[in-house]
Amino acid sequence: MSQKKLMExxxxxxxxxxxxxxxxxxxxxxxxxxxxxxxFNAVLATYLNVYYTDVLKLGSVWGGAFLVLFPIVSKVIDAxxxxxxxxxxxxxRTREGKARPWLLLSAPLITVTGILLxxxxxxxxxxxxxxxxxxxxxxxxxxxxxxxxxxxxxxPLSTRDTTQRGSLSVFNQISTIMMSGILVALxxxxxxMPALGVDKSRWILLMSILAIVxxxxxxxxxxxxxxxxxxxxxxxxxxxxxxxxxLGTIFSDKYMIIIYVYFLIYTxxxxxxxxxxxxxxxxxxxTYNDGITQTLVSVIGGIPMGIGIFAVWPLAKxxxxxxxxxxxxxxxxxxxxxxxMFPADMTVMLVGQFIKNIGGLPCAYVFMAxxxxxxxxxxxxxxxxxxxxxxxxxxxxxxxxxxxxTGIFNGLLSSAGYRAPEMVEGVTxxxxxSQTVKDVITFGFVGLEVFTGAALAVLLVFLxxxxxxGRKQAEIRARRGEQE
Length: 484
Hints:
This protein has 484 residues and is mostly helical. The protein contains 17 helices and two strands. It has helices at 3-8, 23-32, 35-55, 66-90, 100-118, 125-158, 162-196, 200-223, 228-236, 243-250, 254-285, 293-319, 321-341, 346-382, 387-416, 435-460, 469-483; strands spanning 422-424, 427-429. Strands 1-2 form a two-stranded antiparallel ribbon. The chain starts with a helix and ends with a helix.
């Protein structure tokens, strides 16, 4: 099919017909649509480990080794499925695009496997361990891999217009930060966690509802997105590029290597912070499920994210995405130092969290636009796109760090002597933790990101891909015209 016909014929089932990004696409496809799956994943990132340690009490299984080894081994499996999914996406050729069709498949899979994560039967320890391992990998290595790979590619594949692409990146992150943040960071610690305690049946009911909500919203993302770049490329490129060639291209390009290292460092700090957040608020800064400590930390820390909706993209357009993000990480490290110096002082902690999250704004909102610039740079350099394999490496970093960091944190907790709360006469009762446990938790929540923030600021000095991206995109279009 010619490029002209591909560009003019609407993608099957999409409700987006325009070649320019319109408000319905932004609001429904990139903000509301992803909110369900992203919300559920955000809840899991913060509370799934709490469910394992405090509700199922798996912290002592295999002498504490299970919750150390199981997340790491599972993420090895997840890494393999990400590579496979990247290849599948790169070889998908439909009128809907190459990533969008997989959003449709992921919608019911996330719901079913998400429910299985928590519906662990009352049985022997062996049965529970097997169930946890199977359900965890069905969700993360299968269902969420399909969703996450296709979802993350929608911004890079939506359009070549850097301004429109940047706005979609911002809307995409609003869905993650604002919608998920409001519930996970505010409603959960204030209302939901005190009500749940360690009551297993309540956990299963709530998480099942969240998993079911993800289904219609993911379908909304499917219907209100469009892969304009894919349609353009399919019009002028018919040969499939070998996997080894694509992989070699990715790991021989300095910008791609820099952005992967950047993402690895950032993800490591963020994962350990997320998994340690409830423990920090329960045992260092406040008391167990007091309903206010985690809410205050999240509210003050989250206010900058609301400001960022209006401030980040104008600043990024004026000064550059890389430059604004670099300065942000300097503030990020400074805020972390303030928090680390006085971890048990609520006032100082809130000031430090506010400063740190101001610094984290640019990374949160414009990273995917920077990643899209690197993908266009690679296409300009090699005359073919490597979206699927590039995104699979990106996701491998994300999932590997999640497993490794969770395993490390659980290992440190266990070795420090962490004691899980108990259910006594229908009431959740938490025990006091040693200073060693508190020190481990404090480093995980505020200490580590001091170092990662400084490292990221230095690394970004070398990521200047956007300085001539407009010229490269114009050359790509010219090549497509000549091929046509």
